[in-house]
Structures are given as structure tokens and as C-alpha cells.
Amino acid sequence: MRADDWGQDGVDSDVPNVARMYDYYLGGLHNFPVDREMAQRVIGAWPTLPAVLQLNRAFLRRAVRLLARQGVKQFIDLGSGLPTVGNVHEVAQGEQPDARVVYVDIDSTAVLHSRLMLVGNPGATVLQVDLRQPEQVLNHRDLRWQIDLDQPVALLAVAVLHFVPDSDDPGKVMAAYRDALAPGSHVVLSHASQDLEPEAAEKVTQLYARSGNPIQFRTHADIAAFFGDFDPVDPGLVLPNDWHPELADAPLIDVGGVSGYCGMASKP
Fold first, then answer.
1. Is the pLDDT at 90 greater than 80, yes or no?
2. How many angstroms separate the most distant Cα atoms in the chain?
3. What is the DSSP annotation of the chain?
4. Which of 44, 92, 129, 212 has the most CB within a 10 Å radius?
5. What is the pLDDT of residues 47-56, one digit of tens each?
6. What is the distance between the alpha carbons of residues 30 and 33, in angstroms, rounded to a whole number?
7. Crossing angle (nearest 10°) for helices 33-45 and 49-69
8. Which position has the higher pLDDT, 263 or 8?
9. Mind listing the pLDDT tens digit for each residue in 156-199?
């Protein structure tokens, strides 16, 4: 079923939506014509973008797989978006059946479909909360039901912080999350960067600004700062295909220069 057939009240099908555009890039059906039109404009400026986002999702699965195999059983996925193949709970619970996952997203469509997906899974839930409000996220009753913040947690911020502008102080937001995590916890993130393809990044920035969903590309140093004083996990903040390719569940795609970095760091 395509999004056009939902007939949901309160879903604005006349304005492009970041979550639905992302779904379109990944080949999903949870998007409207307005999302597909804007996404095609972005692809025109950055033709490899769908492949880049596939690499990003593959990184997410590898990171969750690595952590679960190391015994991590608690995951908080910030800006989780619309459900797609290889969701965090599927990977984590495939390795650790008693793993607990909390998805966090402000988008009503993403939350609705996540709730439908999680019916019958007591070890996973979704919150409709703005990730820029870490106190509301971390003190939410449903999160505390699943997550013990006195024990190690994997905090995932994958392909989301570039939608948090400097004016919202994402560094302060991430510091609040880091401070709340117990020793032995991890932060996993990926983020768009203009380092390798500055012209494409500028075009994409302009398109997203016109869509009402601004995106902010950042440098390698800016992205690394989101880890704070956590210890980088080998191989550090790198291009997606350079991060533990041995954990891949499918052949990695070579798309040449990739405008984004990914990595993990742990709390001492």
C-alpha cells in the first residue's frame, strides 16, 4: 500500500516531509507525490544520494550488530524515521532476544507506522517526542519502562543531526544525552558532510531549505565534536564503507566519494 492510499487524518500530503523523502530514497512506499517530486530534485543535484543512504542504513545495522554481540541490550534510536528493512529491534533482538529498543521521532507518520510494526513486541516501543528535548526523551515514562539508564545504553543518532541547525545547539543537545548515559554506554552517529562534495552539498542545502526541512552539512571536526570526551571506537569517524565492513550482511556498494561520516564512541 502506498502512502497515497492511507487516508490518514492530520497527515499533510501537500508539503514535502523529511521522513517520507528518506523512505522514498530507500525504495519505500510510505511517501506522497510531493515527497517524490522534491526527492527527485535532490537526486538531480546529488545522483548518488539513494546509494549513500543505503550505505548509511547498512552502517546502522553493522553498529547495532557489533554492540549486541558485545552484550549491549539497550538501544535508544533518535530520529528513527519510517520503518524499513533491518530496523534496530530486528538486528538487536536477532543477536540478543531480550534486547530492548526505544525509537524516538517527532513525525506522526513515522510514529504511527512504528507502533503498528511493534505490535506484539514487548521489548520495543516508540515515543513521539522532539529529540532536541533530551530531558523529555530520557524522562519519558515509556522510555523508563524499557531502559535502565544506570546500565550501558547505545544511543543512536544516525542521519538525523544534520536536520538540527546550529541555532538549536545540537552540541548542547548531544552533551545532555551523553551526560545521562552510564559508563560503558556508546554513541553511534552518522552525519552529512560537505567535505568531499561541496558543490552537491550546497545544491542540496538550497533544495531542502525551500522544502521547509533545512539540512546542515558539517565538517569532519564538527561531527566528531558530537562525541564529546567519549573514547572513539576503532576505526573512528570514517566513510561508511570503512567502518567494520566484515560485519556487513550484504555486499557493500562502492559509490565513490561519499558526503558523510559515521562512527561510534564509548563512555569511559
1. yes
2. 49
3. --GGG---TT--SSS--HHHHHHHHTT-S---HHHHHHHHHHHHHSTTHHHHHHHHHHHHHHHHHHHHHTT--EEEEET--S--SS-HHHHHHHH-TT-EEEEEES-HHHHHHHHHHTTT-TTEEEEE--TT-HHHHHT-HHHHHH--TTS--EEEEES-GGGS-GGG-HHHHHHHHHHHSPTT-EEEEEEE-SSS-HHHHHHHHHHHHHHT-------HHHHHGGGTTSEEPTT-SB-GGGS-GGG-SSPPP--SS-SEEEEEEE--
4. 92
5. 888 888 888 9
6. 10
7. 100
8. 263
9. 999 999 999 999 999 999 999 999 999 999 999 999 999 988 98
Amino acid 169 reads D
> How many C-beta neighbours within 10 Å does residue 89 have?
23
Residue 60, phi then psi, degrees to nearest 5: -55, -45
- Whether the CB-CB separation of 20 and 48 falls below 8 Å is answered with no
Q: Picking from 11-25, 121-135, 154-168, 189-203, which range would have the lowest pLDDT averaged per residue?
A: 11-25
The C-alpha cell 570514517 sits at 238
Angstrom CA distances, 161 to 96, 108, 118, 193, stand at: 28, 19, 25, 11
Contact of 264 with 233, CB cutoff 8 Å: yes
